[in-house]
Amino acid sequence: MQHIKDIYDNIELILSDINKFNEVKNHLTSVLSSIYIKAMSSDKGYCDVFIIPQDTHKKLIKILEIDVKKMEECFRLDWKYPNSQVKMYSDPYYHILFLILIYGLNHPNTHFAENSLTLILMRIWNGRKSEFFKYCNPDIMRYVINHMVSNKFLVSKYDSPLSLIKDYFVPTILSKYGDKVKKDYSYTKYMFSQCWQRVRQIFISSPYYDIVQKRKVAQSGLLPLYMKAKEEGLYQKALTNSSMTDEVNPLETSSTSNIERIVNSTINYIIMNPQVSYPDSFIVMVNKNTNVSKTTVLQLIKKIHNVRYNDELTDVLNIILNKCNVTDEKDLCFPSFLAVLRKNVLSSKNNRDINKLKIILDRILTQIFQDLGLDYNKYSNAHKIQIRNVIIYALYFNARKKFC
Amino acid sequence: MSLELIKEEFETANLARKALITIEENREKNMNLQRMFETTLSSGLLAQAMSEPFEAEIFESKIKSDLSYFNYFSDKMDNTVCETMNQMLKEYFKTIGMIYEVVNIKPEIFGKDLSNNISIEEKDETVKLTLENFLNKHYYSYPPEKRIEIYESEVINHVKDIISSQTVEINEATEYAIKWIILENFLHKLAFPGLIERKIKYVIESEDYGKVFDQARVQELYEQFCDQAKAISKVLAIFI
Fold this sequence. Notes:
A: 19 helices, B: 240 residues
């Protein structure tokens, strides 16, 4: 005996009334519109959650004159979950939406199936997101999406959770399970379980048992990649609001490409010139400002003229120029540029950019120190600040030498 | 000798022996602790663990706070001495700042921070109490003979310095030299409270530091500070 069918048959009857049908249709449209508008204006990317109105399912229950307890009982009997304490299975939000989904499958022109499944998946997304990311930094997540996920990972193909749900999950789940649900309404349980699994896999997948940590750990998914990026201080700022419109801000584009050009030219200049000479006045200045001995200053800055540091130096110079608000090569040539460098980079305290700079410079310096027969990690954090500043001064010197 | 007397003597000797053994054990324990501390410091672990970088704003607050102690003495000076002292203090604080900056250590304020908005009365009271406690602990609590014994190793050079520049009785010179040494120690604590001075000395002696940094510069600055502290405390000692 199909219990869900009993309650569904009532819904068929009620929705044969055009007014009721329009009420349900308008309500679904209105709810989805409000969620879409908020989602599309957000720049949180895969950190985002959907703002689902509280009364979404209550209003539907009211329009369709459903007895909530009876509905829950029907689903409990067909889905065979033990009692109403089983949270997700016993949630009337999902029950009513599955009933409307069934109606939509039986009446494809209404788009009720797509709309209700979208709402189901959105709520599951919210739950999984809050389960795995108590706090999600959109800049870190942006970096993960743009630099760390493989091309095969769904998130690389769909630029937001909204797009992922609307354009991928909904059509594929309906296509795969729609027919089976039409034949057997209790199959909605399996469809529900698939919805949950597929969304969850976006966050964590390929679990394995870690012997050291003595627990299951995910190998892939947004969560392990995000934690890795967070640990390494990797992030990517959002584009400005002007770039969210269709019209491209020419100034914005030109300054970004200018910085790229300055960085690439400077780094090429550095790595292609291993025998560059640095004037005494520069060495004395660096020694005076860092207390690193003149001998060591010279040793360190000569070592960066090596193609092995191309990537790291590119990242470092990028951060420096951004922190100093350089938009054009002329900015490098102002006498005040050194003061700006000192204020915004050399004396700057803990912030995301500076922390990232520290990590990359430490990587370079650990290697350089090793080459010099020294141990970089013997030096205190305060002393490392002074040593890192030598490399920053060297990049400043070379950028100005190239462009001024 | 009666048996009871012999027994009593034996028990007393036994007690004395046990006491001496305990003293010796404690001395060894203290030496081990001291050795452990020296080893940890020389391995750089201590320096690494306790190093926050220099902050110019904190140093400015430090100067304001430290100046309160010097102001205590300036009330007792005439204008000429005051002016000379101001010049000396200008160079003195410059050297201290350079040491903190060059070694890249976060400046520390000795005792209560007197740079904040506290009343002049509270400031004066704190300064007076701190100095009096320091002097009581290191000078007034000892009888004259004990003072000489404690500062014996340092006092000779200071006395020579005094006698070479002025005609003064040896006892008077010794008393003055002791006050001078105590104030000199106070200035060291004021400039580099807690373990800061140890960190600076570590940096001056560390082989690893010398491989990368301009160690000679730190040494030069520290010696300059010591000379300046000596010169200033020589003047201040007149007023206690």
